[in-house]
Amino acid sequence: MASPILGYLDPEFLAVMDNTMALLRHLFQTENELSITLPGTGMSAMEAAVCNVVQPGDEVVVGIHGFFGQRLAEIVERHGGTAVRVEVGFGQVIRADQIEVALDAHPDAKMVAVVHGETSAGIRQPLKDIGKLVREREKLFLVDTVCSLGGAHIPVDEYLIDICYSGGQKCIGGPAGISCITLNDRAMAVIDSRSRPVDTWYLDLTLIRKYWLSDRGYHHTAPGSLIYALHEALRLVQEEGLQERFARHQKCGDLLKAGLTQLGLELFGDPENRLPMLTCVMIPDGVDDAAVRGRLLQDYGIEIVGGFGPLKGKAWRIGLMGYSCSERNVHYLIAALREIL
Questions:
Q1: CA-CA distance, 276 to 258, in Å (whole number)?
Q2: Backbone angles phi, psi at 233, to 5 degrees
Q3: CA trace torsion 152, 156, 162, 163 (10° rounding)
Q4: Cβ neighbours for 7, distance < 8 A, ≥ 6 positions apart
Q5: At residue 229, does pLDDT exceed 90?
Q6: Does pLDDT of 309 surpass 90?
């Protein structure tokens, strides 16, 4: 990020952009030509994924098993769409047959959207069966992977995902403030056939696509330093190897869960679908949430966060993402918690 800034149309900067797209295709495990970065955090990618597809009156089936599924539904509605909510309890996953019931009841739905790694609950949503169902119904399939991309196996093409996005700062290991998104030809055909322009100019993918792919026409001043950093993070992902990186996240996640269990703590959510990179653990009765997190930060330099929604004040969420996903960090945290508790 300390590298000298180049102009957004400088040939050397355009070469960095081209290589970033190639690295993103590798990470997303896709052949999609449009695999690009967007200025803004993962939320800008969520907004872009929704607003480019949804027009007033469109129905979108949204699978909700936590805070960020609820946010997806809200964004659909803010752009004039109708969110058909398929909601299960925190800590559970959405089944393909539940999506099927919603599609049967709403045959004109344009898209199905789910969150793969629900940060609020530490739960991994199975995708393969839903992707197959959505493709059979000839709808678009949108998947949020902000928490999990780079730390879990999410083959976009194999799972028939039409739109997928993530943030730069989690398992990818880059900075906050930049996001990435990939769309296939099916998704772009729907966007290109809109009856009215996208209702946000800044995140209009038909305009941004021209800057990244075709005439390199000016759309916005690219965040050069952030693209440099994400590009380097993607190079490190490639250097480590996808399968090796996924295995590291799984190994450290399993080690953390085992250590927490040995401390007598209760893990939250469906045991078969817990995320490796984000572990949600219940706070024991009589333990002061803020006091423990404060001591971890002040005395040990470790930051964990509290719960969202119904888990607020009842659970801790512990992230192991990118560079911070190491056995050393897990052992250090477990030792610190043992001392404090």
A1: 12
A2: -60, -40
A3: 40
A4: 13
A5: yes
A6: no
Q: From 281, 280, 304, 310, select the one nearest 291 (Cα to Cα).
A: 304
Report the CATH superfamily, name and number, of domain 242-340: Aspartate Aminotransferase, domain 1 (3.90.1150.10)
The predicted-structure confidence for 46-91, as pLDDT tens digits, reads as follows 999 999 999 999 999 999 999 999 999 999 999 999 999 999 999 9
Q: Kindly list the domain boundaries of the chain, sorted by start residue.
A: 11-239, 242-340
Residue 128: how many CB atoms within 10 A of its CB?
12
The amino acid sitting at 307 is G
Q: Give which of 251, 244, 225, 112 is closest to 168, Cα–Cα.
A: 225
**pLDDT class for 217, splitting at 50, 70, 90?**
confident
What are the CA-CA distances from residue 25 to residues 71, 149, 164 (Å)? 27, 12, 11
pTM: 0.97
Is the predicted pLDDT of residue 132 greater than 90, yes or no? yes
Say if residues 41 and 179 touch (Cβ distance below 8 Å): yes
Q: For the structural domain made of 11-239, what CATH number should be given?
A: 3.40.640.10
DSSP symbols for 11-36? HHHHHHHHHHHHHHHHHHT---SEEE
The number of CA neighbours under 13 Å toward the Cβ of 262 is: 11
What confidence category does residue 194 fall into, taking pLDDT thresholds of 50, 70 and 90? very high
